[in-house]
Each structure stands twice: as C-alpha cells, then as structure tokens.
Design a protein that fits this description.
about 10% helix; five-stranded parallel sheet; Leucine-rich repeat, LRR (right-handed beta-alpha superhelix); disordered N terminus
Length: about 325
C-alpha cells in the first residue's frame, strides 16, 4: 500500500511539473529548421544547438518565427556547432554574442562571416578550427575571448578593429600561418595572445601613440620580432622605436608601405596585361590595412570586380569607383 501511494504521489508530481512547463515565453525551447532555440525574452532567442550531422554551407538566420511571433536571434549558444562539419558560416545581422566553444573543433570550417552587430566572441569560440582561412571582425566588436582562435593554423591575417577593448589571453595562440596583424585602435592585449605565431612578418598600428602592452613579455611569446616589420604613422616612427616590445620590430612609416615596401616580386609583375578593374593581372592587390584582397588567379577573366575603394598595387594607390 505504501509503495502504491508513493507511486501515485510521484506520478502526480511529474504531472504537475509538466503542467507548469511554460508553453510560451522565457525559457521555452523549440525547433525550427535545422536549429534548436531558447526564448530569452519576449522578442529575443538564443540558437542553442544545430542539427546533428550538419555540414557544408550554413546561414544562421537573423530572425525566427514561433507561434505567430517573430524573434530576433541575438546569441549563438555554448557549443552550438561544436565538432560539426560545416565549412562556411554566414551569421545573420542582429546577432551580438558568440558563446563559449560555439564553433570549436569545426575542423572543416574555412570561412566565417560575422555580422556588423557582433559585440562579443566568447572563449574558445573557434578553438582549433584548423581550416579557417578568413574571418572579418566588425566595427562594434568589443572583446575576443580566451583561446577564441587558438590553433587556427591556416589563418593568415587579422584586423583588430578600433572598438575592441580587450583581447583575452591566448586568443590567437598557435596560429602558425598568421603573417599579418593590423591594429586599428589600442586594445588591451592579455598574455600570450599571439604566442607561437612564428610566421608573423607584418604588423600595422594606426595609433599615433604606441599603446602599452601590459603583458609585454608574453604577448608575442616565441615569435622572433627581429624579423617582423612594423608600419606606423610616419610622425610616430620615433615613438615606436623607443617603446618596449614595438622597438624589437623593424619600424617603418606608413608611407614606406604605400610606396612599395610590400610590392610583389618581379616574377609577379605583368604591367601590360590588365583585368576588368585596370589592375595588372599578375599582381597581388592589397587594401589600405595591408590585407591581400586578390591575387593573380582572380584576374584571368575581365569580369572580375573589386568593391569600390582604394587599393595598393605595386606600391601605388588605385581607386575603384
């Protein structure tokens, strides 16, 4: 009899629990398409999980509909895509936060397009994405978390926007193909941020005053800074030559860079053969931050187009209108 009463009470408690589960509003978890979402407020959801076995090209939507309501997707949750086989990710506008390990161990991921609304990249967000070649950091991003891009061994260049206040420790540690870093502002760099980035060749700082590296002994740990060229505003060369850590690099004015310090080799030149934008087909093209935006193979057809802007080709400015 006692067992029977205990069973009845247990069943009753479970029934009450389900009866009290919210059908709408905060805390509700629902599926839409290949994703699982959690409602965070009356208008905001978090993408909690991607469908198992997801691979290839993925677009993360800016909004999702549920029970006649439209919600803004503002967060990609912890380990949402962890160890998936996606190779290209485009994240919708409106998303502000990429949580811990969201794309960790996505070994096939080659490209991640981040929205202009992104404010925070969490710890280990792209941890060991060993195929990742390019990622854009939007203006408005404020923080890059601990080991966020740890051991992204094919990442070649990064541009740190002026809005970033903090790059946490070991954020780019072990990025063995990283050749170019551009600082558009003066972020705080935690310890070992660029540790073991041993192919680093070029650093650009747009700040007139050298910003202090609080963890100066370890920011570029295991990097031979004597082989790195640092490009700064012309009037600031002397300041950087006297500043700790920066003075271990070969300091140049930005005019040197624009005048062709980074020009292609003679084997890459073919001045008479022009593509659709008026560029020589066999030359590499750079933007004003020093990032290579096109190479010779992309100029084999006259239909190739670059976005409007100013570029550097063979040490000369070229304007695309």
């Amino acid at each position: 009899m006692i067992r029977l009463l205990s069973s009845i009470i247990a069943i009753g408690l479970v029934g009450n629990l389900w009866a009290n589960m919210p059908e709408d509003g905060e805390g509700v978890i629902f599926e839409e398409g290949p994703f699982t979402y959690e409602i965070l407020s009356e208008s905001i959801v978090c993408l909690k999980m991607a469908q198992e076995g997801m691979k290839g090209f993925v677009t993360i939507p800016a909004t999702v509909d549920y029970k006649e309501n439209t919600y803004q997707v503002e967060r990609i949750g912890e380990k949402a895509f962890f160890n998936s086989e996606v190779d290209t990710v485009v994240i919708g506008e409106g998303i502000k936060d990429i949580d811990v390990g969201a794309f960790g161990m996505c070994l096939n991921l080659q490209s991640a397009t981040l929205p202009s609304t992104l404010e925070h990249i969490g710890d280990a967000a792209f941890w060991t994405c060993s195929s990742l070649q390019s990622v854009n950091f939007p203006q408005g991003l404020s923080e890059i978390g601990i080991q966020a891009f740890y051991s992204c061994t094919r990442l070649e260049s990064v541009i740190i926007p002026s809005t970033i206040g903090m790059v946490r420790h070991e954020a780019f540690m072990g990025c063995g193909s990283l050749e170019s870093i551009t600082f558009e502002g003066s972020p705080e760099l935690d310890y070992s941020v660029f540790c073991s980035c041993n192919k680093l060749k070029k650093v650009i700082s747009k700040e007139s005053t050298p910003f202090t590296l609080k963890e100066s002994a370890t920011v570029f740990e295991l990097v031979d800074l004597s082989t790195v060229s640092l490009y700064v505003p012309d009037e600031s060369v002397g300041l950087y030559q006297q500043a700790p850590v920066w003075n271990e690099m070969s300091v140049h004015g930005m005019s040197d860079y624009l005048a062709g310090v980074e020009s292609p080799s003679s084997s890459e030149k073919n001045q008479g053969d022009k593509g659709g934008n008026g560029f020589a087909k066999s030359l590499f093209i750079y933007d004003l931050s020093g990032r290579r935006v096109a190479n010779s193979s992309e100029f084999q057809g006259s239909s190739f187009k670059l976005p409007k802007g100013v570029y550097i080709q063979n040490g000369k400015k070229v304007v695309v209108k």
